[in-house]
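User: New here, please read:
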Amino acid sequence: MKALLPDNEARRLKTLRGYDVLDTPSEQAYDDLTLLAAQICQTPTALVSLLDENRQWFKSKVGLSVAETLRDFSFCAHAILEPDKVLEVRDALLDPRFSDNPLVTGDPHIRFYAGAPLVAADGLALGTLAVIDYQPRELSEVQRITLRALSRHVVALLELRRGVNEHKQTEAALRESEERFRDLFENAHDLIQSVRPDGSILYANRAWRETLGYSEAEIAGLSLRDIIHPSSLSHCMEMFQRIMTGDALSRIEAVFRAKNGREVVVDGTSSCRFVEGKPVATRSIFRDITGQRHVEQLLRARNEELRGFAYTVSHDLKAPLRGISGYAQELERRHKTGLSDRAQFCITQIITASRNLDHLIEDLLEYSRLDTESPTLTEVRLLDLIQSILHDRSHTLTELGVVVNINVPPLTLTTWERGLYQILTNLIDNAIKYSRHSQPPHLTISAEAVGSRCLVTVTDNGIGFDMKYHDRIYGLFNRLVRADEFEGTGVGLAIVKKLTEKLGGSIRAEATLSQGATFFVELPSSSAPTFSSPTSPTKERTS
């Protein structure tokens, strides 16, 4: 009779496979238990039998030559249905479950069977430790108890095997992980190092070694004092002690000294690994910024040159320009009656050109100063600033009959007031200038808070422009109108764009030719903008 499947068969098979024992070679420890079971129960055959889906496989056997049999014919399949009992069949020919079993009616002609289930830690029976005889018989109570005890030893061996396998898998996984991370560290472009609490170098990757010029063998004999440049040694060692006490320095800068004495400036992070509250080793990742620092030094030098150039332009060019303009104005004022119409026209052109050139020089100086000027953040009431700008232009607005609409709520921005003032001044002046021929000119200034930012718009009904030139209008000297139509230097919108970006914002425009334009300026409303600077920010320096 074929045995029923246990209700928990799927879980049982999963547990069995978890031991990774099926189809493994024989082992002395199992064979010793099998032999002991046969001796104690005084049977010619004993088995450690494990059941998978289709077969009964013998991990250990005494008195039997086959390695497995079909599950359908196995006594073990019946034994696992009651994990807490020893299945004892005294005469198989008289038991209806086994009387027609081929293993009973034919070779090896089993008559007696006793099997103690092998019960795993989760309570599932994996198989049996069984004894077999070829004549009817019965176990004594001592034999039954002993057989059950030996079955628990078989399970203990299986658990030990699983533990060893899991340990090997863990070790293999750790080795693979270590190799993977070591490969990652070794091939990283950043400089990676680990330092012991005594300051000796525990590990340095290939980029570190190549940058500082040391071989892998030389690393073992190095300490922090060997690789830190003397100019920053004291401060770096102080930072190292902070790391050893648990401080994680997320943005630090250090100056290393290469083997050949070359200075290497690095930037990165450093922390310490602790075991049971004690520091074991630092973990530091640096990037070589020596080239960047060199570029910054060049930029500082160029900025100094630029400031010198600005002074030269301001003094050496504007002084003669003022002279030319002054003499021309004197001719116009005092000698106009004695001049021909052509001469008067030329003088007027000289005065106009001088004035335009003076404005152009001022705009260029302003544009060049933006890179080096250090803004100061203050709280700025946007509406008050706009009204101040309009008040300064009240005469022009009245003279041209400009209709002004202001839709600005009482917003306060934390920003650079002079920079914002110049942005709005340029945009408002442009709106007035390019709409002055409209009937009547319209100027609308609006603002609204959008999350953590502020959107300011300046709209006019002037000449507008073709949107295909949108990106071009922010370039230096890029004008879409002739100078004799509308005065200007072609620098104003370039200054507006540069200032807007300096304040951490953005600018765009929408326009229709002959119908006006709207400029949108979006700025941070309550957070500090990101200012570009020719010098690097102050950082902590460590090892």
Q: What stands out?
A: The first strand starts at residue 45 and ends at 51.
